[in-house]
Amino acid sequence: MGWIEAIILGLVQGLTEFLPISSSAHLRITAALAGWEDPGAAFTAVIQIGTELAVILYFGRKIGRIIRAWFLSIFRSEWRQDPDARMGWLVIVGSIPIVVLGLLFQDSIHSTFRDLRITATVLIVFGIILAIADRVGRQYRTLDHLTVPHGLTFGIAQALALVPGVSRSGGTVTGGLLLGYTRAEATEYSFLLAVPAVLGSGFYEVSKIGEGSGPEWGPTILATLVSFGVGYLVISWLMRFIKTRSYVPFVIYRVALGIALFVLIAVGTLDPKAGPDF
């Protein structure tokens, strides 16, 4: 992987991680359109660490309160009813599905799930589901209403993003809207829920960087740094955008991209299985 390729993939990661359009799908598609090898699931997981560091910076005070209250709740019973401590436990609960499914399907994550025909299909299907959720969701709940069953539902929705094209934020926000949460509250929990999942996945895959035909450390670090800077700007914009706007523009984009992918595959412009993981 060259330095320019790393910069471009870092930009793509930062621009798409927090939007409901799937960053893993865009990394896969960008590489295919440029004629590069599929950067692979390991590279994708590692550079996502950059965007999660952006989340930690943006929500730093809140995350700090949650960690402190959660830790104290382990040893002091009076802290167990604290809202921040409760949120800490609910983030852990919501992280269970992606850990379990990630381990069960790790071979498919590196191979079958990266087929562009699957990516195109889920871009369209989950885009339509997001549109329905955005329209029919009652949007009256805040994170104060979050329960263990709701946390698990959010977590299952997040786990679907193991398939490129679903979108981690798109999946969790869709689940939240269907449960009646507001766009802003569902998005915030989506970001918090992603931190342990993405950091865990990134550090789990980090040993594969620099080995075999995989990307080298230098370009990977550069892409991670770029994704961090761009990702922070996107978070700031998105949190303002969703307070007054719907997710419809993203739905239209997802469906259009999915259709375009099918056309490019049909005419032979893109090889749906190109890449070393296949």
UniProtKB/TrEMBL annotation:
Keyword terms, alphabetized: Antibiotic resistance, Cell membrane, Cell shape, Cell wall biogenesis/degradation, Hydrolase, Membrane, Peptidoglycan synthesis, Transmembrane, Transmembrane helix
InterPro entries per record: UppP
Entry keyword annotation includes Flavoprotein: no
Bilayer-spanning residue ranges: 40-60, 87-104, 116-133, 189-207, 219-239, 251-270
EC number: 3.6.1.27
Family, similarity comment: Belongs to the UppP family.
Job description of the protein: Catalyzes the dephosphorylation of undecaprenyl diphosphate (UPP). Confers resistance to bacitracin.
Official protein name in the record: Undecaprenyl-diphosphatase
